[in-house]
Amino acid sequence: MVEKTQRFLVAVLRFHGDVLLTTPMINEIKENYPDSIIDLLVYKGTGSILESDHRVNNIIEAEPSSNANVIKRIFKEIQLLRKLNRTDYDFGVFLTTQWRMALMARCLRGAKTAGVDDVKRRKSFWVKSFTFIFPEAGEGHIVERNLSALKPLGLSSINKEAGLSLIIPQEANEINERYAIGTNYCLFHPVSRRETKLWKKEAFAKLIDHYANQGLKVVLTSGPDQMEIQYLKDIEELTKAKVINLGGKTSLIELAALIKESRFFIGLDSVASHIGAAVGVSGVTLFGPSNPVNWRPWSDKVSIIARGQEEFCQTHGHMEGKYKKCLCYISVERVIEEV
Fold first, then answer.
1. Distance between CA 221 and CA 323 in Å, rounded?
2. Is the torsion defined by CA of 302, 265, 142, 47 positive or negative?
3. Cα separation of 278 and 261, whole Å?
4. What is the end-to-end Cα distance of the chain in Å, rounded?
5. Of 338, 188, 336, whose CA–CA distance to 255 is shortest?
6. N or C terminus of the chain: which is more exposed, having fewer CB within 10 Å?
7. What pLDDT is attached to residue 72?
8. What whole-number distance in Å separates Cα of residue 42 and Cα of residue 271?
């Protein structure tokens, strides 16, 4: 009798880095069920980094909750729920805690499903939407939390030390030749989605000059957002050295190719640091104000600089919430020492 191919849905509605952090789980599913079909459900545009991953059969996109066109979003959501309902899934793992996840889980009729035990989601509707509830990360890493979701689903052999992985197609390496970068370079990704995670432009400029004086080319990268691109231009204007400014000019997979071949990288709490962990390169991440225990790059080769109780500086100390927990206390010398 031919054994039925097991079909998994892994749902993570968050950001690019969160999608990359599912790769240890994806690998462990394949270790337990080599012939399984794995579909990834993500926010529109965030699954691009895994498009070349042969372990992922389909990337299904959901409209972000912040989509301003409410009617369009509802229409797309109904289409998505119907698609999930028609697909014969055996397992569903839901890694984020939006209420829509509960509806999606209910569409997987007959499947074993696992959802996160969130303190704000302990009402009957949420709990009864899933076959099993698995605990939040607590004092562990988000990768460990993700892997823990597989045990109640019946996957017995799980490597809790499974690392991130990223498959880079050959064509992604062409960006190096396009900009004549070569091999003797370091890469800085000095931007993040949130202002609270940024370091001083002047500090990055001094860091660039330091490594340029040592004979290294310095490559700067950012996403396509105009504020990020301008941030890199501001840094470039403060430097004495010539830099290779690729702000807004790389796809995520091209960024991964560049990070992989660099001597080392320096980044912030962003997808770039998780990419560094996935490709196995040495690096330093300036971390704050997120909890590094939960969100640090999942690699021994990437060190973090984080104090936990950041000092209130003159510029940010008066601001509300996380904004006053800035990275201004980190000196250029401290970063050089860590590298």
1. 24
2. negative
3. 13
4. 56
5. 188
6. N
7. 87
8. 15
Nearest to 186 by CA among 221, 216, 229: 216
Fold of the CATH domain 7-153: Rossmann fold (3.40.50)
What is the pLDDT, as a whole number, of residue 103? 97
Please report the pLDDT score of residue 255 as a whole number.
98
Query: How is residue 117 written in tokens?
Result: 């035990």
Q: What count of other Cβ atoms lies within 10 Å of the Cβ of residue 14? A: 15
pTM of the complete model beyond 0.90: yes
pLDDT for position 1: 47
> What pLDDT sits at residue 290?
82
Residues 138, 127: Cα–Cα separation, whole Å: 19
Cβ contacts of 125-134, under 8 Å, gap ≥ 24: 126/99, 126/102, 129/101, 129/102, 129/103, 129/105, 130/94, 130/102, 130/105
SS3 of the chain: helix, strand, coil, percent, to 5:
40, 15, 45
Give pLDDT, residue 299.
Answer: 96
Distance CA 329, CA 104 (A): 44
Same fold, 7-153 and 171-338: yes
Instruction: Residues 171-338: name the CATH superfamily.
Output: Glycogen Phosphorylase B; (3.40.50.2000)
DSSP letter string, 219-264: EEEE-S-HHHHHHHHHHHHH-SS--EEEET---HHHHHHHHHHSS-
Please check whether residue 12 is in contact with residue 50, taking contact to mean a CB–CB distance below 8 angstroms.
no
Domain ranges of the chain: 7-153, 171-338
- Mean pLDDT, consecutive 10-residue stretches, the chain (339 aa), reads 84 97 97 97 96 97 84 92 97 97 96 94 92 95 97 89 95 97 98 87 97 98 97 98 98 98 97 97 91 94 80 58 72 95
